[in-house]
Write a structure and sequence with these properties.
Chain A: This is Pyruvate:ferredoxin oxidoreductase, beta subunit (EC). The complex is a heterodimer of chains A (291) and B (389). Chain A contains 11 helices and 7 strands. Chain A has one domain: Rossmann fold, CATH 3.40.50. Chain A is of the alpha/beta class. A 7-stranded mixed beta sheet of chain A has the order 2-1-3-4-6-5-7, with helices on both faces. In chain A, helix 3 packs across helix 9. Chain B has 2 domains: 6-204, Thiamin diphosphate (ThDP)-binding fold, Pyr/PP domains (Rossmann fold, 3-Layer(aba) Sandwich), CATH 3.40.50; 269-388, Rossmann fold, CATH 3.40.50.920. In chain B, strands 4-3-5-6-8-7-14 form a 7-stranded mixed beta sheet, with helices on both faces. Classes of the chains: A alpha/beta (291), B alpha/beta (389). Chains A and B meet through helix 2, strand 1, strand 2, helix 5 and helix 7 of A and helix 4 and helix 6 of B.
Amino acid sequence: MSLNYMIPASKFKRYLPKDYVELVDYGPFGKEYSEVGTKNMGKYKELVEEHPMCSGCWMAYYIKIIFAALPNPEDTVTIGTAGCGRLAISQAAVPFIYGNYGDQNAMASGITRAFRLRFPDKQKDVITIAGDGGMMDIGFSMTMHAWFRGEKFTTIMLDNEVYGNTGGQESGMSVRGAVLKMSPKGKNFGKMPAMQLAITAGCVYVVKMSPTNINKAAKAIRRAIFAARELGPTFIHAYTSCNIEYSIPTPDVFRDAKEKEKGRFAFEEFMTDEAKELFTVVEAKKKKKVS
Amino acid sequence: MSLNKTLVDMNYLLKEAPREQHFITGAQAMAEAVKRASCDMAIAYPITPQSEVMHLVGDIYAQGHIKEYYRAEEELGTMSAIAGAARGGVRMFTATSGPGLLRGLEAIVSWPGHRIPCVLGVLTRVVNAPLSIQPDNIEMAYLMHSGIVMLHAENQQDTFDMTLAAFAITEKVDVYIPVSVSTEGFFVTHAKGYVDMMSDELAFTECDPYKAPVPAMDNEVPPARIQRDAPVQKSNFMSYLIHSVWQQEIWDCNKRAMKYIYEYLDGPIEVTNPNAKVMLVASGCAAAQAREANRYAEEEGLDVGFVKVRAIRPFPTDELNAALAGAECVIVPEHNIIGWLSKEVKAAIPNGGIVVEGPRVYGGMTLPVELIMTEIYDALGMDSLVLQA
């Protein structure tokens, strides 16, 4: 029913908000990825359009990519926590759960298991999207334990290396020496090794990247979702700068992302042998369809 | 349900199904109730020694009475996962105790607002410090302002019946907020008592996640939640308004639970000798001791009555007012230092000055009946030493 449940009865349609009707008629629901997806952004009704993020926000841009990359938006639930990201995520036309502080991966553990109990033959994608504070500081235990337990959902960390939403405090993902609120003399330890932690904790697919290439970013997101369906937890660690707290002029946001790509956010992709095998099958099917 | 059970409604299960007497602990009684509740999933986290309940629930999962069960990372993880799973449309149970309850409290207090139907066992324990692992129900005070429905069991039988009833109450469309069942650690959880139970081949009708004011978030039921806006998260007048009306609804839901407390549990209070001059009002284990004190008083021919409070939320204000209308003194024995029940009773009646705030024991002490008798003698202007002799 997942696709049909959002399609209104024809007689009722004219009473619904225009935005809803347009999403049903021209959105990505139930369509082949080749018809919509990141390659066709701007040509269809996207899941995220307006949002209240700051001008030049790289996080908002990446959130748009996440939603454009979803393989099954009509059967996806996103979960987030306090932070800038949820301001845009909550504007997406996909069910979103705003949990308590840092509890997104615990909540996702519950809902994923519930979906598997109730819909054993149906794929429902659960994705947690939270910032570096929510994922690696306040939610650290719940993030790590969901991975250790092998919970089958995707975790995406929007790493802006600072608590942006609360006004620019140091986070565990800020770099050593960063002078921020709550680290007035400079942070005295380095970034937490999120990617290594994810691998150690049993994630089957892990990517670290600065998402400067839309299609590459989308491919990683889709791979993470496909692997989570079949194999186990997956994790994407994406650089999504805070141009306000790090004083990056809006025109330089992309340049900054490119610079980070050459440095601490150089593209790294880890996958288990099973994940590799799965991607070979899934991506071969896709190519066949296209041809 | 993986076992071949006969599914029945809660009224049949609680009131009509034949029962047999068993001699079991309070922890066993709670787990036995879960066994008959068609519970889909339980999430556990240890807290020694009160939480034997979740070990026993693990056993009944292994036997096939529950479909899914796991040990979470800690209580906040447990309570958050409950919130996620309930949104996924399954019937949930967990149990915790004292410090564990407080660790999970951030998630628990958001359950009513999130419209999470679930059952929470609270096997009461001291909240540190100094260290103690003994029974004391002070943690219930922290739940009282959360919006959650709160039942307080006096003994093993109450624990069984209230836990079963809680599964029905939490999923009522006009309630649909969590229900907690508290009882005293050790005194009830570890002590055996007689419990009349129906066959475990019977179970409560399964969860229907669409029979809900806020249906499961499973992308199956219209209207689709493809909203563009989460207005509650915005700092504008709409967010104030939405929060305010939503919370009003939560507390109205809490009040509406009362009619189901009548339906399944014979009401929020039990009254003995309602027109007495001196009334004892107590809940949980303190009610067992107050009941005994009332029996002593009766034997001594004293004008004393007794009210056992089963429901802490919704609080039985009207019922207490009726039961205490003729009282000149109300004695409220409790197992905690702050006296949360006596404060509630004081606030509920127009002549709160007649409430004696005590006797109270805490930190794990037992509550001797003699302590309550002394208050009774004082209230009646008697020389307690002479009478006790």
